[in-house]
Amino acid sequence: MIKTVAQLLEGFLKAENQALQKQKVDHRPTIGDMYEGLTKELLNKALPSSSDLNVTAGFIVDKDGTQSAELDCLLVTGKGEQVPYTDKFKYSIDDVVAVIQVKKNLYSADIEGGFQNLNSFMKFEVSKSKRAVLLRDAFQSITRRPLPKSEDVDKLPIEIQMIYHALVTELITPARILLGYNGFKSHSNFRDSFVEYLTKQHAKGSAMGYGPISFPNLIICGDYSLVKCNGMPFSAHLEADGGWPFYCSKGSKPVELLLEIIWTRLVYQDQLSPSVFYEDVWLSSFARYISAKFVTKGEQQGWEYQITPASQTELKEPAESPLWEPVFLDLPQFVIINRLCHEEKIDLTVPSEVKYLEENGWQLDAFVSELNTAGLAARDGNNLVLLTRGCSCVMLPDGRYAAGENIAGQLFRWMKIYITQRDNKKRVDEISFASDTFSIPMNEPLIIGDDDKAKKAMSILGLLEPIEKALLDLGDKNAITIVSEHHDTHWIAAGFMRGFTNSCDNGYFLVCYPKTAQTLEQFKFLVQSSFS
């Protein structure tokens, strides 16, 4: 959905920008008003009509009445205090979702002014708590560590502590966006100019206050954007040397980036349905730009930046956005991750857990490291825990195992595309039903999750009646499974699941696995870990 809305608004914005440029107006305040009005119209078109969200201009204040610089565009909830005899308002920082500073033309001097305005409220204290789940998701996606309890933060390495504190500030501060409709003629010039601005601040001895939290979440100049990868929503995980690639750039689709940032805030604040993201399975591709690392040199501590240069070829936008994919796993990884999808944690000190891994060719540390590198799981003391919030696991018809975040249906949307592409290959061993027979591909696993097809296959195989009888005694259980070894070529598991968050997990299912690929005991273990 977000891509469709972004495309519509992108067209609207470009058409209106061209119309405004034709206006013969030289009065700078009036020109500013025109572009601020266009930005407010853009936001109003992007917001749900039934919400209590409003778009206005004015000031942010804290609980003590301290006031920010004048701000062009505020996305707010509730009611503010109108500034007498104007159309501007004062809003508590607790009620501001996002702030946009608007420029008709964005050049070096405008970057400095916008940067300062957007930081004029950064030290304001908030009185309303924010949902910590966004902090959890951001911290874990960047550090690949479980979010610590607040009393345990000081036990982390100093560089991780500083990232934690930076993300807490990001959570409680409105999203900050600097929007320039025109300006730099190339992606590389835009990147170079921002680095020059930062370098000048350092040369002036005024680098204090220019840590990662001070950077706007998004700076737009025409088609080009500088984007903060703070996990809200865009993320870049720490590198081997501890560097955090926290600022990236992109040469297209700025409105889509703006919507992603604002809609993510609204979804986490329960002011917008997560369904706005349900149809999207593509990733945004960014060019590396600025990495940060918290360092100690003598008695001084601070953020050290590393700039990654990029050629015109590297800055060229791909013809198509890359498709999101799950993580592909081997069987032991699949079994453990699938258990974590149903259990809170796995105790790594239990001898049977280590024995299982070793019997399947894994050493414990290497196993955990691999899952951590994939962004799926991490150590938390002696336990293994998930890093995702809605992980799901799937066995693919081609025999592969996969797992991935599915909190917004990403994995199942990918599965739908995968199955469609596979079906379009017109394989000769496709599933086929006759009146009383059921054909299973000879040397391939087969999974049927469609209720009607699964029940029909169960009926042909003589498994539907036992399942339906077992359902009468299901009680408080969420799943029932029957394993059959009577088929000539495949082990068969038939079952029913209910009560899971994702509707796709519920209902009848049938799993067929070649006898040549696994023993009966291996198949039973796989089914037990996957469907119990």
Number of helices: 15
Q: Classify the secondary structure makeup into a structural class.
A: alpha+beta
Strand percentage: 15-25%
Q: Uncertain runs with pLDDT below 50, 5 residues or more?
A: 424-430
Annotation, overall tally of beta strands: 23
Helix content: 25-40%
Average pLDDT score? 84
| Rg over CA atoms | 27 Å
What is the subunit arrangement here? single chain
Tell me the overall shape. Answer: elongated
Largest sheet: 11 strands, mixed
Reading side by side through the largest sheet, how are the strands ordered? 3-4-1-2-5-6-7-8-9-10-11
What is the straight-line distance between the termini? 34 Å
What does this structure look like?
The protein is of the alpha+beta class and 532 residues long. It has 15 helices and 23 strands. It has an eleven-stranded mixed sheet, with helices on both faces. It has a four-stranded antiparallel sheet with strand order 20-23-22-21, sandwiched between helices. The protein has a three-stranded antiparallel sheet with strand order 12-17-16. A hairpin with a 2-residue loop joins strand 14 and strand 15. The radius of gyration is 27 Å and the shape is elongated. The two termini are 34 Å apart.
Describe the protein's topology:
Blueprint: H1 2-21, H2 28-46, E1 53-61, E2 71-77, E3 81-82, E4 89-92, E5 96-106, H3 108-118, H4 132-143, H5 158-172, E6 175-183, H6 187-203, E7 218-221, E8 224-228, E9 244-250, H7 254-268, E10 287-297, E11 300-307, H8 312-315, E12 327-329, H9 331-342, E13 346-347, H10 351-359, H11 364-373, E14 377-380, E15 383-386, E16 391-395, E17 401-405, H12 410-423, E18 432-433, E19 438-439, E20 446-448, H13 451-461, H14 464-471, E21 479-484, E22 490-497, E23 507-514, H15 520-530
